[in-house]
Amino acid sequence: MKRMKTTEAVGQVLCHDITQIIPGVTKDAVFRKGHIIREEDIPVLLSVGKDSVYIWENDETMMHENDAAEVLYRMTANEHMHPSDVKEGKIEAIADTEGLLKVDREKLKKVNAFGEMMIATRHGNTVVKKGDKLAGTRIIPLVIKKDKMQEAEKICDGTPILKILPFTVKKAAIITTGNEVYHGRIKDAFTPVIEQKIAEFGAEMMFHEIFDDNDRKITDGCLRAIEAGADIVFCTGGMSVDPDDKTPLAIKNTGAEMISYGSPVLPGAMFLLSYYRKGDKVIPICGLPGCAMYNRRTIFDLVLPRLMAADPVTADELASLGEGGLCLNCKVCTFPNCGFGKGW
């Protein structure tokens, strides 16, 4: 690559895109990499501020920005994704399916700390839909040493930074608890909320029973739901610390592994997560606090996508939700396009 005065570059081959920016009208390349400069191109180049241009000279030790972007894309993207066209040295990863986006943060940080290159992604553990933009990649200079790109590839070691987990949990059980609902004193308003939210992930309720505050009955209901084929069990009601709230005890007595009773999220502090193992199958059993029934967004909205993608949630991950775990209850809710729950 060499630099030449624009007025002397007729017949030469451009080694990079030339971008024209007209505010409110366009931001696009007026000439693409590989364009052979003609006499009539000179005024256009000068009008976009290019008194000099970079002309391609073959150098086996260097890699052009477009080729480097291809390398960065391979380091970033996985199955269920496809690349955009290369434009001005940048390639974007586009989702081919709906699912849960996972980001290997350590690898992403190492690549971005390596110098002269960058990968920008969406937040991990968020829902993406087909056609969504997931990441953008490019190098910072126009050309980069090939051996540096080869060293960068070793960071990923054949395992890309991104992956999409399709939603696989389809059959849900709801165990409604509480004397007031069981005896018909109030209407069950919780179950319709859960049904609506799981339907967004292609799941449906296949088992539903209502119990009074009897922990043995609740335990039995959970186990019968699992025997009936439930992929996930939601228990509603009885999640506070009142002596007559027996749902946490009932879930524990199923034999499920208790991950956490309590979360650093408001609304949602009394959330319970456990996993019941039946052979090779792992079935989440969740205790949902009352806030999930009447608040627009709660811990339930943060955890549900991961449960629907069969992505195991750890106690440490739940603990990390403290930063960003305070919902501001905005008058106009923009979730998930806000900071709520982006801490894990």
From TrEMBL:
CDD domains attached to this UniProt entry: MoeA_like
Known catalytic reactions: adenylyl-molybdopterin + molybdate = Mo-molybdopterin + AMP + H(+)
Residue ranges occupied by any MoaB/Mog domain in the UniProt entry: 173-309
Pfam family, one: MoCF_biosynth
InterPro entries referenced in this protein's UniProt entry, alphabetically: MoaB/Mog-like_dom_sf, MoaB/Mog_dom, MoeA-like
Function summary: Catalyzes the insertion of molybdate into adenylated molybdopterin with the concomitant release of AMP.
Identification of the protein by name: Molybdopterin molybdenumtransferase
Organism: Hominisplanchenecus faecis
